[in-house]
Amino acid sequence: MIKHKDHFHGSDLEKIEKIYGIKKEDIISFSANVNPLGISPKLKKGITEQIDCISTYPDRDYRKLRQCMADYCSTEADNIVVGNGSTELISLFIQIKQPQKALILGPTYSEYEREIALVGGKTIYYPLKEENEFKLNTEHFISKLSEDIDMLIICNPNNPTGTAINAHEMRKILDACKEYDIFVMVDETYVEFAEDVKSISSVSLTRTYENIAILRGTSKFFASPGLRLGYAICSNADMIHEINRRKDPWTINSIAVIAGTLMFTDEEYIKETRELISAERERLFKIFSESTRFKPFKPEGNFMLLKIIEDGLTSGELFDKCIRKGLMIRDCSTFPYLGENFIRFCFMNPEDNTKLASLLLG
Ligand SMILES: Cc1ncc(COP(=O)(O)O)c(C=O)c1O
In angstroms, what is the span from residue 11 Cα to ligand 1's centroid? Predict the structure, then answer.
């Protein structure tokens, strides 16, 4: 087995190619959490017809794109800020808020902590407990909030646990945070894969709360991580103004603008994606629930966290076994609170999922 100090992010195919000698074209990435259908057909067809768009600068205010995003997620264009992937927005919101002490629900995506450290802030984690299936106990969590915390970051549905907080619970959290003057950043990168998006998404709460910003991207649901298109929803006009003041102009290129307007309106593709993920989520959860080797945690997004319960088997060994067959899973040992006995994989096409399940269970 190859011992790797670093974990492999879902996008590290070049690194895998070098270490394992497997061509990146031959790897099925179960670790990037990207829609297996590939890009929207409407986008594929439309973009070539409009490729001349790159001969002019994009609209600095991105009015048409913001309106399209607003229609897509039922809000107003004034509440939308666009970014070069949600990554640019994570960074911008943190730079503006300059949190001294940020609270993060963990285990979660590592980028938040990195950005907080870059502005000199301290991160503390509120642990989602395995014995609660990694679900949040809202009342207990609220009782731990205090005035010295200035920012709260929640990934919803959460990567890597797959658990989600519904809008009703989020309202309680926002009320408590308002009292302590805590700004809440909710990363909804995976929300569109959820069975009932409306019940989980906090977008409707931005109508009443100004202490929340929601981050979304197109990398995962619209299978376009190379496009670098993300957006934030926030009704706090001062905050939006500050973001726009600080942001470099034109960080979203003209191709991404056209791509956005095409993909957000590809209803057929959106429906097909949701149906595929929903069916595979149910099927795979059932398969792994019946296994004696793994315990799956109920997923709300397009990926599933598994605990290895068979003695002597580690996440590193499973990663190694799968990658040798060209199937790349996520070894979760580098996530805080998860040790060497957790792996995560996303739902790809049914045949590929079946292949992975057989390998993991065999
Ligand atoms: C929870 C979460 N947020 C944000 C990102 C980055 O997304 P983007 O490509 O939109 O910058 C990722 C990527 O893995 C992620 O898992």
Answer: 11
